[in-house]
Amino acid sequence: MDAPKLVKLTKKDLETDQDVRWCPGCGDYAILATVQRTLATLGIKRENTVFVSGIGCSSRFPYYMNTFGFHTIHGRAPAIATGLKLARPELDVWVITGDGDGLSIGGNHMLHALRRNVGLKVILFNNQIYGLTKGQYSPTSKVGTRAASTPSGSIDHPLNPLQFAIGAGATFIARATDTDAKGLAAILERAYKHQGSALIEILQNCPVFNDGVWDTVKDDAANHQLPLVDGKPLLFAGGTKGIRLSSDLVPEIVNVGADGVAPEALLVHRERGSSAYAHLISSLTHPDFPVPVGVLHSHEKATFDSMAHQQVADAVAKQGKGALSKLMLQGMTWEVGVDGIRA
């Protein structure tokens, strides 16, 4: 008997009949198209793929993916996705969230999903603003951001999503831009194949409330992006500039080549390097430094969901299968009647 043929998907197979409703020019359109196109090439099973979202502009995503999906409540997508992954470990579970949904009200849930190394693929849209609720500043907004809630300018120091993920212990951490379809696709594929928690920060434009916040990074990529390539020196500006550590272990920009240092003197990117190195690279937020883009950190360790199922299997092997009725009636029980409670 011949083996069943694998169904090859196209981008159209992952589109739904719902009208895609984001503001004209929103970066979400480009992200949606890249996700649909990339997952189609990976040969996923739609019946085994789930998108879970919270609240926000990005959280409309499940409506537009012809897979299973949950549009849940504000900030709770990682918690609900964790329960789903535990109950159905064979599913590919993606979490769609934004900088407000995932890092403010949902920060605690995000922290523990990453810390536990649950097998979730988290796509975090970062436009440095609350879009759906009409333009309040968010946890990632720059100091001085003038918004509906901060007319005199935000005085909060912004949260760095990559540093947050490193501190939480995520085992796959990456950054991409909404308009770089090729770069984002490569990262999505890596995240899909990764066993464990994955967080992808996407620098995304909100044309209504924070237009152009990432334009410098995207429009002048050569000078304002630091490509992270495993095993390669940290070079940018067409290879004419690089990053090295000074004698007091502070990153500094140097010229490279005939009028500068040799490439061998530069920092070399290591995806599987220490968390201290990953933290150092993610901290390059000064305006003089380019923005790191690519896979920042990746390593393997046992996942929470696999360990949970192994723990259950070990208990069953040792004690046999239990019965719910027996569990309910063993130990100290009470009977509630009209005349009170009897032990």
Q: Can you put this structure into words, describing what you see?
A:
The protein is α/β, with parallel strands linked by helices and 343 residues long. It has a domain at 11-219: Thiamin diphosphate (ThDP)-binding fold, Pyr/PP domains (Rossmann fold, 3-Layer(aba) Sandwich). It has helices spanning 28-41, 77-87, 99-105, 107-115, 161-168, 181-193, 215-219, 221-224, 275-282, 304-319, 324-329; strands spanning 49-53, 68-71, 92-98, 120-126, 172-177, 198-203, 225-228, 235-236, 241-245, 251-255, 291-298, 335-337, 340-342. The strands form three sheets. It has an eight-stranded mixed beta sheet with strand order 2-1-3-4-6-5-11-7, sandwiched between helices. Helix 1 (28-41) packs across helix 6 (181-193), helix 3 (99-105) packs across helix 4 and helix 5 packs antiparallel against helix 9. The model has no long low-confidence stretch (mean pLDDT 93).
